[in-house]
Design goal:
Blueprint lengths: L1 H18 L13 E7 L9 E4 L14 E7 L17 E9 L3 E7 L8 E8 L22 E7 L8 E7 L10 E8 L2 E7 L6 E8 L8 E4 L4 E4 L3 E5 L1 E3 L4 E8 L7 E2 L9 E5 L8 E8 L4 E3 L3 E6 L1 E4 L4 E4 L3 E5 L1 E3 L5 E7 L7 E2 L9 E5 L8 E7 L5 E3 L3 E6 L1 E4 L4 E4 L3 E5 L1 E3 L5 E7 L7 E2 L9 E5 L8 E7 L5 E3 L3 E6 L1
Parallel strand pairs: 1-4, 6-7, 13-21, 23-31, 33-41
Antiparallel strand pairs: 1-2, 3-4, 5-6, 8-11, 9-10, 12-15, 14-18, 16-17, 16-19, 19-20, 19-21, 22-25, 24-28, 26-27, 26-29, 29-30, 29-31, 32-35, 34-38, 36-37, 36-39, 39-40, 39-41
């Protein structure tokens, strides 16, 4: 016996392990968190940090003697620039560095007929330049060798490998002309450019910097937003992203933390707009989009939620029911279950609603025994979902009509004799009776003039011409509600 119990326990544990797999995230947290690890590549150490799913890491700026920090990259090869996107998985960031220019000296030829053939340019780091794009580094002194020389002071942000342009123009009395490039040269990887025009003067416009633009990767300019929808409708989530590269999209979904994200199979799952067919089971589900380019850059949007609103999809209908029979009112609703129902009633449209105490008042279908005193009563249902939201159905009315307790029977009599048809009914009295007749089933009913036509018993003088005629009784109660009996047929024989 004990052995069987142990075997059952092991089987239960195995099933639980399959249904509830272990996840690597912090299961004690209210939401998923991810680890961001900083590899500073020779810079000062930066501790890793924990970031909630969809939030942003601090990506601080490290320091390294003799180097300029160029930014964080998501791969060790430093080809995928990290633009500061939301963190949606464990993330490793790698620091990129450039060596500072400390001093560069070189000579650059300026081949202009009749002019001194060279400039000597020197760079020295450490001196601030207020506006390097307009008024710094002007070459305005001729050296002893007949060339022009200027010592250039470099800020920390000027880096080796960055393109610098030196603009020089000739200055005749009529003014400056920037229109034509004369020549270009590189000084240890730094590009110098002169612009010339016809004339006697010579002047430098200054040093200009052409920064090497980093790969900015993917920039999300519009995040998706949470939305609410009713069952059967379509919910949409959209993202807008920018990149110099082509982008691909993959929407993902999960029921909630700690469930893993899985690729969505909904319409538009591989486009910038996801369309979700809303069903009650998707209430509270989360969605996000992974965006990738051809260089391996990846961004994920913030997680958004689909809220499925409670909705009444089928309204109850008015009922006309014979006295003492069962009237049924049914409502159908969708939303986050389990749904709760509470039927209410009132005597008429001017009265207040009160909760019904009938046995079925807390179900989707209310069953009411049609007593004569319930004629004109109204009913409605209050439906609430698991979130405490509620919807109220339309009001419907119960009409109670007389009940035929004994139907008239078809009869066969000889011509010249009297045929008798009898009906019995219950209802709010006094009851009124009106017998009707018609030639056959395709004819219209008309009130009978036979004896007893306004009583419970009709007597018909059976003439040969009445063979095949049909008779019925319409019973009307004190509320003015009428109900017709079944049709009975008269057969006249010879």
């Amino acid at each position: 016996m004990k052995k069987q119990t142990i075997i059952k326990l092991l089987i239960a544990l195995l099933i639980a392990a399959v249904i509830f797999p272990v996840v690597s995230k912090d299961v004690n947290a209210a939401v998923a968190t991810w680890t961001v690890t900083y590899h500073t590549n020779g810079g000062d150490s930066i501790p890793s940090e924990r970031v909630q799913d969809g939030d942003y890491c601090s990506h601080p700026t490290p320091k390294r003697e003799g180097y300029v920090f160029q930014g964080w990259y998501t791969n060790a090869e430093l080809t995928r620039y990290y633009g500061g996107s939301a963190v949606c998985e464990n993330l490793d960031l790698y620091a990129k560095w450039d060596v500072l220019v400390t001093k560069v000296e070189a000579s650059v030829n300026l081949p202009v007929a009749g002019e001194h053939p060279s400039f000597r340019i020197a760079f020295t780091s450490g001196t601030h330049c207020s506006n390097p794009r307009t008024d710094c580094f002007v070459i305005d002194e001729m050296n002893a060798n007949g060339g022009y020389e200027k010592t250039m002071y470099e800020e920390d942000e000027y880096r080796a490998g960055t393109t610098y342009r030196l603009l020089v123009w000739f200055s005749p009395d009529t003014g400056y002309d920037y229109s034509r490039p004369k020549t270009q040269a590189y000084i240890n990887g730094i590009q110098a450019t002169w612009w010339t025009s016809i004339g006697d003067g010579r002047h430098t416009c200054g040093w200009y910097i052409d920064y090497t633009t980093p790969d900015d990767g993917i920039k999300i300019t519009q995040q998706p937003t949470s939305t609410s929808a009713t069952v059967g409708s379509t919910a949409k989530f959209s993202v807008v992203a920018e990149s110099t590269d082509s982008l691909t999209y993959q929407w993902q979904s999960r029921k909630g933390y700690p469930d893993e994200w899985v690729n969505s199979g909904q319409s538009g799952a591989k486009s910038s707009t996801l369309s979700v067919n809303t069903i009650a089971g998707l209430d509270g589900w989360q969605f996000r989009c992974l965006i990738r380019d051809t260089k391996g850059n990846q961004e994920c949007t913030t997680a958004v939620t689909l809220n499925v609103n409670l909705s009444i999809v089928t309204q109850p209908k008015n009922a006309t029911t014979p006295v003492s029979d069962i009237a049924e009112f049914t409502v159908a609703a969708t939303g986050k279950g389990p749904l709760k129902y509470q039927w209410q009633s009132r005597k008429d449209a001017s009265a207040s609603w009160s909760n019904s105490g009938l046995p079925t008042a807390k179900t989707a279908t209310l069953k009411v025994t049609s007593g004569t005193g319930l004629h004109g009563y109204q009913f409605r249902c209050v439906v609430s979902d698991a979130k405490g939201k509620y919807k109220v159905s339309n009001a419907v009315t119960l009409k109670v009509v007389p009940k035929i307790t004994k139907q008239p029977k078809s009869t066969s009599v000889k011509a010249g004799s009297v045929a008798t048809f009898t009906v019995a009914a219950n209802g709010k009295g006094p009851l009124k009776y009106q017998w009707q007749s018609r030639k056959n089933s395709s004819s219209a009913w008309t009130n009978s003039g036979q004896p007893g036509a306004k009583t419970a018993t009709l007597n018909v003088n059976s003439l040969a011409g009445l063979n095949g005629w049909q008779f019925r009784c319409v019973v009307t109660d004190a509320n003015g509600m009428s109900w017709g009996s079944n049709a009975a047929t008269l057969t006249v024989t010879k």
